[in-house]
């Protein structure tokens, strides 16, 4: 029986064709995904990485809602120019509480993974309200509505922490109980800035030393 | 009447899906042109959140892929599966449900994106209620499609149906796995995967949504409509068998090339490179098969705008499937990643390949479905040149922008200091972004001309009733 005769069996049988496609297309995914989804080191937090606080998480959800990720990556590649420009390159352990990941695929604006602490809160506020007031040639949109909305309007924060706890993020009962109070009096702008200021701070020298030893 | 209807091909649904597809093309390409303009004049969102770049961008991508692309695939899939099976659609009511439910998902999905419901996973931005709806409608699509094949009167299942079938099966698998999440509220969920693992799952999905929808699905269109329009049988049956299975096997591995030098295991990246390069073989096997099929019918290019579009789409298909593996190689990717080169690559595929082949197929199909000549061949020829020049200008602008971004970002002077500030590199992009805007406008204008041309062709016409032809008993089944 040559190949084409064998193939005739598949192309004359709907069930065989469906099964064949499912089987052949699943192989690659299984070989790549299963090891990655069970690799413990990819789920182990870096020494300084902790779950997002109620305010940071709210800021992150605003970052997602406005889709900042389509223009800003959060992934410093291990290249001389990138480390020089942005700071230490990104480690997998820094992202274990990122659901979803926000690494991005495009840098219309700069990478933001190490943005935390580089600019003042006031700079960020001014920049988000009118980017061209601080960066004359900027092509970033302005986000005036963030100042007019309360952080608590973003969604049910208690429920968010509960859901994330169910997914394995180690929040304490106290953190969940105080979540709503944490957002009180803050605008969406405040929450977003708190998030931006903590970005990239999960990095630890310990990780750097480990990576250094490997090279 | 009911009995007679059961014997004719279901073509009204094909016409309706083509109409939806063209409407989505105009809306989604229009949204693309608008956000292209925002990158030149950033204040034209007028401080309105729903006009903001971040919210409009997924409306553009989802509108093109799921509105324009999937509607076109459903239309051409339903048309060709009936012809190649010699039976009308299985469960026509379910087919109509699929048609309208899908449009509702894309429409409400676009509105939800403007409202800020966004998972941020590229090409899977819609939130969990939509994910569930998509899964249900998609399964119904599969039932109609495979049900029609199961009832066929002709023994072999034609090649185009393998590709449409792969589209339905693999997209279902990718969609379900990648969309797993725990809901918080109607508009918000958290991914079942975190960090690096989420990244690998997402690009397994993202790359293969391109692979099995924008490549595989549209290859189904090639295998049915190219031989039809050229009036020649497919050049090599053997090559199409090999190319199909190699394609289904190899494409799935290539996702990690979207994550080079990112924080994922290196072996996953390397595997992604190897399989991406291997992928060139099945991709070009189909290209060879397509070009050889038209090779004795070149003279038709002079008179038939539909064939012109399809032959040009094959050229862009060849370009994009060569460029892709090249960009998957680490030393090229180090320059191209995160730049506008990627955007250019996507558009050489989306404009040059997906849109052109769809336009060509529509120019062929609509006159047949309406039972009269195309309203204006001259307008179709003008559209051809607008589409071609718009696509070329778009790609060239984005190549220039992307390569300069990539090299300028990496540039270091003799003292080891960065040569350029990010802000200055960003500001130097404006001329390219302006060119891209013009390119998009030219392409949009062509699409609007087509919409008018097809509308005039269909105006006042009822669909032609076509009955399945008699089947040669040597190839018949289920008789």
Key phrases:
heterodimer, A: 215 residues, mainly alpha, 10 helices, 50% helix, B: 479 residues, Cytochrome C Oxidase, Chain A, two-stranded antiparallel ribbon, 16 helices, 71% helix, globular
Rg from Cα of chain A: 23 Å
The proportion of residues forming helix of chain A, as a percent range, comes to 40-55%
| Mean pLDDT across all amino acids of chain B | 95
Number of strands of chain B: 2
**The CATH top-level class label of chain B:** Mainly Alpha
3D structure, described in words:
The complex is a heterodimer of chains A (215) and B (479). Helices cover 50% and strands 0% of the residues of chain A. Chain A has 215 residues and is mostly helical. In chain A, α5 (121-129) packs across α9. With 479 residues, chain B is an all-alpha fold. Chain B has a single domain (2-412, 422-461), classed as Cytochrome C Oxidase, Chain A. Chain B is built from 16 helices and 2 strands. In chain B, strands 1-2 form a two-stranded antiparallel ribbon. In chain B, α5 (128-150) packs antiparallel against α6 (159-179), α7 runs parallel beside α10 and α14 packs antiparallel against α16 (430-458). The radius of gyration of chain B is 22 Å and the shape is globular. Classes of the chains: A mainly alpha (215), B mainly alpha (479). The interface between A and B is large, with 87 and 99 residues.
Short description:
By secondary structure, chain A is mainly α. Chain A has helices at residues 3-11, 14-38, 54-65, 80-86, 121-129, 131-134, 157-166, 173-183, 188-198, 205-214.
How are the elements arranged and paired?
The complex is a heterodimer of chains A (215) and B (479).
Chain A: H1 3-11, H2 14-38, H3 54-65, H4 80-86, H5 121-129, H6 131-134, H7 157-166, H8 173-183, H9 188-198, H10 205-214
Chain B: H1 2-5, H2 12-38, H3 53-85, H4 92-114, H5 128-150, H6 159-179, E1 181-185, E2 188-191, H7 195-230, H8 237-251, H9 266-278, H10 280-294, H11 305-328, H12 330-336, H13 340-370, H14 377-410, H15 422-427, H16 430-458
Antiparallel strand pairs in B: 1-2
Helix pairs in contact in B: 2-3, 2-4, 2-16, 3-4, 3-5, 3-7, 4-5, 5-6, 6-7, 6-8, 7-10, 7-13, 8-10, 9-11, 10-11, 11-13, 11-14, 13-14, 13-16, 14-16
């Amino acid at each position: 029986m040559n190949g084409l005769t064998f193939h005739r069996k598949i192309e004359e049988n709907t069930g065989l064709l469906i099964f064949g496609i499912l089987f052949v297309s699943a192989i690659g995914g299984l070989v790549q995904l299963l090891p990655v989804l069970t690799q413990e080191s990819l789920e182990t937090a870096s020494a300084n990485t902790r779950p997002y606080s109620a305010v940071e998480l709210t800021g992150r959800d605003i970052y997602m809602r406005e889709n900042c990720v389509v223009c800003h990556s959060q992934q410093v590649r291990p290249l001389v120019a990138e480390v020089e420009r942005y700071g230490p390159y990104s480690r997998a352990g820094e992202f274990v509480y990122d659901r979803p990941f926000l690494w991005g695929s495009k840098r219309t604006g700069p990478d933001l993974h190490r943005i935390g602490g580089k600019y003042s809160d006031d700079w960020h506020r001014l920049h988000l309200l009118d980017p061209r007031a601080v960066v004359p040639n900027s092509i970033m949109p302005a986000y005036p509505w963030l100042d007019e909305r309360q952080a608590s309007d973003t969604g049910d924060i208690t429920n968010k922490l509960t859901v994330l706890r169910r997914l394995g993020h180690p929040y304490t009962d106290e953190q969940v109980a105080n979540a709503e109070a944490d957002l009180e009096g803050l605008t969406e702008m405040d929450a977003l800035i708190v998030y931006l200021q903590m970005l990239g701070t999960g990095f630890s020298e310990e990780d750097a030393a480990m990576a250094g030893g490997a090279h | 009447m009911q009995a007679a209807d059961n014997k004719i091909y279901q073509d009204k649904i094909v016409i309706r899906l083509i109409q939806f597809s063209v409407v989505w093309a105009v809306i989604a390409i229009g949204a693309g042109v608008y956000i292209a303009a925002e990158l030149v004049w950033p204040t034209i969102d007028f401080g309105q959140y729903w006009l903001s770049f971040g919210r409009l961008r997924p409306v553009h991508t989802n509108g093109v892929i799921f509105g324009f692309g999937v509607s076109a695939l459903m239309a051409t899939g339903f048309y060709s599966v009936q012809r190649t099976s010699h039976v009308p659609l299985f469960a026509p009511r379910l087919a109509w449900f699929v048609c309208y439910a899908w449009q509702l998902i894309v429409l409400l999905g676009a509105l939800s994106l403007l409202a800020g419901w966004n998972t941020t996973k590229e090409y899977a931005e819609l939130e969990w209620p939509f994910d569930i709806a998509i899964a249900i409608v998609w399964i119904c699509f599969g039932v109609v499609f495979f049900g029609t094949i199961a009832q066929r009167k002709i023994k072999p299942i034609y090649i185009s149906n393998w590709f449409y079938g792969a589209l339905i099966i693999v997209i279902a698998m990718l969609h379900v796995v990648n969309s797993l999440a725990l809901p918080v509220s109607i508009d918000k969920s958290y991914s079942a995967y975190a960090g690096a693992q989420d990244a690998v799952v997402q690009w397994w999905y993202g790359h293969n949504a391109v692979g099995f929808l924008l490549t595989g699905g549209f290859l189904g269109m090639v295998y049915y409509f190219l031989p039809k329009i050229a009036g020649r049988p497919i050049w090599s049956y053997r090559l199409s068998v090999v190319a199909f299975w190699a394609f289904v096997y190899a494409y799935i591995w290539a996702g990690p090339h979207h994550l080079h030098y990112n924080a994922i295991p290196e072996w996953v990246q390397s595997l992604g490179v190897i399989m991406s390069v291997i992928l060139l073989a099945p991709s070009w096997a189909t290209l060879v098969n397509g070009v050889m099929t038209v090779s004795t019918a070149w003279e038709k290019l002079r008179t038939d705008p539909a064939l012109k579009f399809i032959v040009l789409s094959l050229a862009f298909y060849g370009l994009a499937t060569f460029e892709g593996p090249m960009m998957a190689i680490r030393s090229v990717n180090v320059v191209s990643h995160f730049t506008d080169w990627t955007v250019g690559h996507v558009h050489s595929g989306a404009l040059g390949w997906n849109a052109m082949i769809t336009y060509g197929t529509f120019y062929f199909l609509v006159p047949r479905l309406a039972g009269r000549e195309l309203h204006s061949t001259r307008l179709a020829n003008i559209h051809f040149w607008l589409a071609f020049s718009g696509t070329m200008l778009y790609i060239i602008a984005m190549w220039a922008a992307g390569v300069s971004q990539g090299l300028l970002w990496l540039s270091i002077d003799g003292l080891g200091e960065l040569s350029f500030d990010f802000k200055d590199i960003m500001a130097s992009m404006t001329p390219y972004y302006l060119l891209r805007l013009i390119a998009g406008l030219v392409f949009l204008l062509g699409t609007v001309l087509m919409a008018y041309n097809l509308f005039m062709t269909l105006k006042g016409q009822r669909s032609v009733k076509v009955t399945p032809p008699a089947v040669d008993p040597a190839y018949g089944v289920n008789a």
